[in-house]
Amino acid sequence: MSNAVTFDTPLELPLDDETLAAVNDHLRPLEPQQILQWALAHLPGLHQTTAFGLTGLVAIDMLSKISPTSQPPLIFIDTLYHFPETYELVAEVERRYGVKVNVFKPEGCATVEDFENKWGEKFWERDEDTYDFAVKVEPAQRAYQEFNVRSVITGGDRASLQPLEADATGLLKLNPIFSWSFAQVQAYITDNDVPRNKLLSQGYKSVGDWHSTAKSAEGDAGERAGRWAGGRRRQSLEASRAAEAQAANGDVAATA
Question: Which of 2, 49, 61, 224 sits most deeply, having the most CB atoms within 10 A of its CB?
Fold first, then answer.
């Protein structure tokens, strides 16, 4: 008689604490590919939000091999201030994997010129919170509502993550690479010839908006080194978490 744990396909949301704990007990010993395979069968409304960092690229590559004809839709929040190399990578991912990247920009803005006509130049220096809302929160809310996102594949800060998390709104966040070190992520990228941002070969260890990213200083370590140039707080990570929560509950009054 089998003692294997079984779960609804798909899971009924919202998850109670007991079910979430059981899911994590089941997923924790699995390899990332196995976690993704499980997610494809069990997570409702599954999408991948990505800024095309290394962990996101690893997940995209794994999913292309696990489910080449039906990968979760990709969502990219285009702040309009990414490096040219980032936009080149987006196009390369679409070509390489045959997937469509669903791009969401600040409301009513197709270009930097549009955005600066609306908000002014260097708006992030004058009102960082409103800037974050305009370029990250609102586009994420629109994406989540348009696609009816109920579960997302994320990269996140792996050191403190569980395989599956649920926020206060009930949104499920899957962290398939939660147990891997940065070295393991880099090794997978190299071994599988995964496309990556060209700037990573030019002294950058992490790439965000051009105005908040600098080349890594000597001694910097980890995949987010060099971000938030000029002493800016780690708003981008906080912004993405808040955006996920607000987008899920439709709170359009107030950050990937």
Answer: 49
